[in-house]
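Same chain as my last thread, 241 residues:
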Amino acid sequence: MPLFPLKILIVDDEELARRRLHRLLGELPGCEILGECASGQEALALLARGDLEIDVLLLDVRMPGLGGLEAAALLPEDGPYVIFTTAHAEHALAAFDLGAVDYLLKPIEAVRLGRALERARHRLGPRQPPGELHRLPVSTRAGIVLLDPRALTHALFDGALVTLHTASGPLLTEQSLQELEDRLPAALFERVHRRALVNLEKIERLEPQETGGYIARMPGGAEVPIARQAARRLRRRLGLT
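reply #2:
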C-alpha cells in the first residue's frame, strides 16, 4: 500500500539545519515539505492563516525569541504533531510532556528521522486491524467492566479521566485514549481528536466546521469534535474527496 504523504513544516533558525532537514526529507518516501520557518513566531503565524494542512512540525527547541517548547505549547489541540530537533538533550522530558511524537538530537540521521515520521504517520493514518475482540476489559473504580466494543459510541478525555459513552450509560476510567485505541477494533473506531475516539458505525451526521474539521452527531444528541487533520484522514477512509 503506498504511503500517504506527510505534509511537513521545517522550523529552525539555522539555515544549514533547515537545508540538512530538507535534504534528508528528500531521501525519505511519503514526505511533502510545505515550507520553512526561521522562528517559532513565524511558524505560529503561518499556521494561524489556516490555508495549509500541515501534519508535522520539525521544530527546533532553541531559537531566538519564541523557542520550540514555547511555540509547541501555543499550538491548538488539533494542530500538527511535533517532532523536536535539537542539539540539547536536557529538554526531552518537557517535550514529551507537550505530546511530542519524538525528540531528535542533532546531527539528525535519515534512519532516525524516518522512524520519527513513521510514528507520526501511525497517529495520522489508519491502524492495522488487530485480531477480533469480543470484550474490552475497562478498569473503573467499581472494578473491571467487560465492555462489548459495539456498545461504545465514543470516548472523551477531559484532562483527568476518560469517559466511555455506552448504550447503558457512561463509564469513567483512568486508562488512556491511546491504550483504548490500541485495543479497540480498528475497523470500528477512529481517533478523531487528541481527546476523542468514535465508533464510526454510531456517527449519525458530520457537520462541517470553519476550522476544516467536523462535529460528529452521536446517538442521543452527543457532539464529538473531529480535528482538521482527523477530518482529512476520515474523508480518505470514507472514500470522500
